[in-house]
Structures
1.
Amino acid sequence: MADNTSGFYSNPLVKWIEYRLPVFSAFDHMVGTQYPAPKNLNYWWNFGSLAGLCLVIQIVTGIVLVMHYTPHTSLAFDSVEHIMRDVNYGWLLRYMHANGASMFFIAVYIHIFRGLYYGSYKQPREILWFLGLIIFLLMMATAFMGYVLPWGQMSFWGATVITNLFSALPLVGEPIVTWLWGGFSVDNPTLNRFFSLHYLLPFVIVGIVILHILALHQHGSNNPLGIDTKGPQDKIPFHPYYTIKDLFGIGVFLIFFSFFLFYAPNFLGHPDNYIPADPLVTPEHIVPEWYFLPFYAILRSVPDKLGGVLLMFGAILILFLLPWLDTSKVRSAKFRPIYKQLFWVFVLACVGLTYAGGQPPEGLALIIGRVCTVYYFVHILVLMPLVGWFEKPHKLPASISEAVLKGDAAPGAAGSKA
Amino acid sequence: MKMTIKRSILVAAVALGFAAPAFAAGPAIEYQAQNWSFNGPFGTFDRGELQRGYQVYKEVCAACHSMKYVAFRNLRDIGFTEAEVKALAATFQVVDGPDDSGEMFERPALPSDKFPSPFPNEKAARSANGGAYPVDLSLVAKARVGGPDYLYALLTGYKEPPADFTVGEGLHYNEAFPGHQIAMPQPLNADQVTYADGKPATVEQMARDVSAFLMWAAEPKLEDRKRMGLKVMIFLIIMTGLFFAAKKRIWRDVH
């Protein structure tokens, strides 16, 4: 292929390089003019590139922060304050990194819900979905360990609570916890290994992201109609159409990010993490970062520790089964009158879990947490298979271009194209 | 589709609204929001207020509380001149060393020194304060729910306890403190300091000044941050507008 592709380019330098190293055509096939995408993608399809941007921001700011950070229990907190006060633009780097983690999760959560709504996990995109879930799991591990590094009160007690979850396992539980800690409590060895892994995992994520994109390119993006592209009339080249659309999305997203970064940098954090870690003083309420709250709520809604731990991990693991649990052949919820309603109930349940996770596990919050936990599992394990059987989907359009010409078969669709 | 987008935005808003108090999980005491000069996107510190606050800190709080992340040189940010900072630092003694004979020695502080702590360690601090530990004040304005509003409420919150409330041995009643029993006795009393600018030193005035000073100590780059934020926002809004225009133009012919 190499000796042919140089003919596509007119710039002599590009031609010269392309003849020897086909990077330009590789790039063109990845996100350029040679990658055809469905022409009807809406703005919910922006969040994949936004998540990618967040990953890059986290890695770049993180690498610079490490130049000034010290992973030792007696110095970590001080070194973070050194970054905040004495390092040039250190406050900017740290606030970008801390808020960037939240932005990353916002982008990824929307990306996942978009996949759920439009059935992006269905045949033939099952492996694409798995890779996404693996990225999500790695992100959670990375974010958790990153939160421990400033060695504040929530860092220390969050690490203690979460690592202690493994002690619920019968027989092997206690030895596993000691092994994770590198000692008999969360201490310097724990901080050191978390630091090491926090630096390693983002690059593992980059690797899985590459596979994720590779799997995406095999069959191309799903689309709001959930039907396969039938021919060239259904597609447009990724560049310039989706590059400019993604750039616009990036602009909006950065404005949202900047609002938190410059005007409310501590809003998404917890005040207790500005208190240095003290193993002798337990905070009144130990709460994880907001993006873990739904899972924390599931954990605490079960009175039994082992049960709670299994349910919490199960909540993510069952997502791997979605391609088979969802028995409907129709991908997009747009054509699924019942599933469409249930999807929004599911979103509400996740919001309820987020709320419950941030409250002490008592009274109304505990009840909300339990109801939402039950719905979460019933939705995925019972309703999704059943609705797929009994629901009568609307008639699917014959092709994307037919639907687009007819005004997308739904009112108001013109808004995303103009 | 418009419908679903609208609905999703609504859901997201509800999610944020729900989650906001969740981060603040803790004592459910409401603090009255003060009208700080550093509030809002264009807020800046009031140098006069910070200097008065520093005076209150130095003459009252520093007797028991350390502030180990702030250096004398940082005081230039709140309006002191280089000569003033030098002279001020020199009035403090700090331990340095070891010298060539291996001995630790005391010397006058330099602008590069951090504020010296009143006690050599936590044990000494506890022993001198009836077992209670006067926390380091460098970050306290960010380490408490309510921030400077809470600090102001706490410093002005010493009241007579209600009739049915028993205050423990060595503790003091305070409206704002979680549990209402605090080991720190009322630190501020009227006319405790004499302000150079002639402001009457009421408890409210001193509490306000020192709370603002503590906010500065915790977030010294606040002004830089907001100033850069404005520039970045203007840049991003223009850039995004251009992207939007380009997007519409490029997509004009897609059907």
2.
Amino acid sequence: MPITKLTQMLDILQGKAKRRMVAAFANDAHTICAAYSAIKIGIIEATLVGDENIIKSICEKHDVPISAFRIVHEPNDVKAANKAVALINQGEGDFLMKGLISSDKYMRAILNKETGLINPGAVLSHVTVIEAPAYSKLLIVGDVAIIPQPDLNQKIAIANYLIKTAHSLGIEKPKLGIQSASEMTMPKLSSSADAAIISKMAQRGQIQGAIVDGPLGLDIMIDPESAEIKGVKSEIKGDTDCILFPNIEAGNTFYKTMTKLGGAELGALVMGARVPAVLSSRGDSELTKLYSIALAALGCN
Amino acid sequence: MNRRSITSFRELTGFLKRSTIKKHIAVALGGDKNTLGALARSVNEGFVKATLLGDRKQILSVCDQEKIDPLLFSIYDIAPELAVQEAVRMVKTDEADVLMKGLIGTDKFLKAVMDKENGLLPPKTLMSYVCALEIPKYHKLLFITDPAVIPIPDLEQKIAMTSYAVNMANRFGIARPKVALISGTEKINPALPSTSEYALISKMVDRGQMVDCIIDGPLDIFLACDQDKASIKGVQTPVAGDADILVFPSIEAANSFYKGLMLWAQAELAGLIQGTSKPVIVMSRSESAASKYYCIALSCLMAEGF
């Protein structure tokens, strides 16, 4: 059964073996509390890499039992991130989470050619799963955070990550819409041209596991009535599961509009490394952090 | 068009012979034996009226040499250097329906056709070439483009070529022809720009931005024209080995395709310049008498309703 609400991820995970999370530089209440809430509902185990004293005092302050975690002491942020990555590489964790460290440093630890988590040629990208009150199912979108202006190959990689995420949410044959300003093909607009190319690649089996169509305007993708009125012959027709955005501005604006004006909740993860990585920001709600952890746990092989 | 589609050149000429169609062809300078022979046959069969423009004496002497009855044609006695311009003028002013190249250099002939003021090519119109092929081993006519005019078509040119070919197939009674955009494989390969362009063109047709047809590409010749191979490979394509039209990525590919078929598969062809306001016949001396005759027939079909 496909998941239509983010909270259903938790139900699925409760029936599975616990995934082991490693938090990089978990020196803040946000990270510790999010990890603990996931532990409490029984979906993960967690290793916190960071300053042991600080972690202990935060736990005391927030009534979190320190025994809930394995703690690896490393007071320096960069070293802590590298240590967390090393633990994953040693098989002591299934996925990674960012703590009180800048995204830059965190990503650098993942991307390090020798000690990191990335295979040569892999594309690192960000996948967001949005639950919007106005839409009947989850929306899996990318890339809203990492790749500013994806080229054709990066878009293909993003498409594959969106599809893989949809599969992990129980959506067997997701519908993937490739966003542009219009469903009309405009060869001089690269987002439009790339969309046509990617949808043909999907027809040819060069991208698998989804029904792919583009270019499509957002209205055609998420609103059956618009699709009907405009008479667009698309298999997606207002029922999309995944949206591939042509650039970070479009994607970022979409998810922020959805959360800030549309009352949406979300979970997000970074894909393309050998394991899923959570890249939450301090601005994220408790619930978003929990969902992001759950999404990463679901994304583990 | 409310009739069964035409699937062979015999059906084409049969259709013309039975119809009331009679097109007036203006020939710029007389022709060689094959050309005049094909023209004479078309006149005899009733679907053509021909005017040969040029030096009367010269035309009569060619007819005499080739044993062709000059009375089948109107002869328009005119200085040879003025013949092309006059023939173009006749077609442009509807005195004639079809322009045909006779014993004149292709360059000179096309220059007159493309003349901005007095020619037959509307402004900003792309000139291209579509050719119908009759291949004994294929179950219907196959239209190909462009084997003769555009060396390496860009996206816009491919779109125009597709429209021309669809328009020609429509004239043969094929309402929604199946168009295969030809490459070496059916896979998209961004390193091969034509495959990306094909993806765009297919999507444009899907979205109703182009002529109405059933289109898919990239496809190789097997997937386009061999129903067995198409099902064996398991590629989902609406063309599925039953193509009416092949759009090629370059002149080398299209040209080699048809010449190979003529050389080894007894194919016959009939082709026309595209983009002109009236049909224009440019035949090469190497074409057979039969091909020339079919070419004339094709021009008459295309002239109908221009």
